[in-house]
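Quick one: structure for this chain?
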Amino acid sequence: MTSVLGIVLVILLLGLLAVALRTAIGTPFRALGILVAGMAVHNFLLMILLRLGTPDLLVRLLQAWKEVILLALLAMAVWTGWRRWQAGNRPRLRPIDRLVIAFAVVAVIYFVLPGILLQSQASLAQRVLGLRVLLLIPVLYLFGRVFPPRGRSDLTFVAILIVGAAGLVGLFGMIELWLVPTAQWLGWGVNQLSAWLGFTYHGPGGLPENFFQTTAEGILLRRMVSTYVSPLAIAYTGLLVVPLGIALLLDRHPRLREFAAVALVLTLLGILFSVTRLALATLVAEWALLYVLWRRRWLIPATLLVAGAAVLMLYQYPRIGPLVDRNLVAIGHRPTGMHFGNQSDPSAIEHLQELGKDVDFVRQHPLGAGLGSSVHRYGTTVGTGESAVLDVFGELGVVGGVLYLAIYLAGIVYGLRGFFRRRDDPLVCALGLTAAAGGLALIPITLTSDIWSDFSVTFLFWWAVGYSVRLATTATTTLVRGSGPVARVDGFAEPDSLVV
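Got it. Here's what it folds into:
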């Protein structure tokens, strides 16, 4: 009976995918919202399908929904570019465009190189996964460059979908954190999901270690994991969503502002109760930066409130948060004066311990160890794995690593340029601010966490970078609505763009 329910759910979700694919093909820019919002529930839905005993083939089919949309968009971009090339309309490449192309070429070369040349121990599956993560950077950048919004309705659609999804993540997270026993996650099939994805965890009951924060007393303090089934994905995606939420708050429509206020509060709750210390610190800095950029008075008390909430989480949450023992039994009697230990949370501990090893590995392999050397799935691999920056250096060597850093930093610069160019319209410049403020907030995180494996972060940031380059280098035109469909937006379709 349970497998029948799983099959029915797959059919319904495939129908939803058909609608999403049609929307993406008809209006490619809207695919950004679909991809990011879809990833917010991706892991949870896979977990439920596995728990229901759904046939593996159907689960795999549904798991590939994002690749289906990405391949459709890529085919559209290539076909449109080829037609314009044949018509004699050559693209004008910016320096960052050339860097992105060079990065993609290096990644492909390293994929086809025999592993023995770089003494790689990665399996074919790990190499494919490594290539997928790296090629998402140029592919998403391309989408941001060549798929402009056709009007305010597209921008509003994307912002509402992304901010709304983040709000739903925060809402569900508050429910599962405070009202659902931790052991229930085992009943929901979280360990089946981990095994399906190729991971092995050693937390209580086989749960991922980062489900918990260890207090100084050795008791386990629960962290929000929500539909991402990960506190890190909640926190890191939230840092990129905040600029979009504030852009909606600055919109002229009252109902949109009301929606944004509720969703943004829930998003902040998600970041806070993920208890990811580095994210909490960068969250406060991000809000301060947003005040500097926007110069809105209300952002001063808002920033102070966010800072106060972050401090309370660090010092007061151990005294009120849900506690469990190593057997996942809830602890009713709370020891007096509970607090975090001198060490960081389990996730941060692991990252920092491995960071030194990753640095040594990169120093010993200046040419890189090949794709997949940072992928710790489907077997043990000797390589990096705890830092997005060092992962690129570890896989592609110094050349690939330097290209990556140049693209990342240039993306932040273009984000700022795009923001200052169109700051008169918060909705238009919102993704530019996501690339700039969000990119700055993620810098310390990229040094200690493999964030590009969280596709919600990857999709949003790198698409925003491509959009920012387009925003900063095309003519300025106000987005308007026609009497029927949204009017053509010339400001996003100048010959100066990479592909129209």
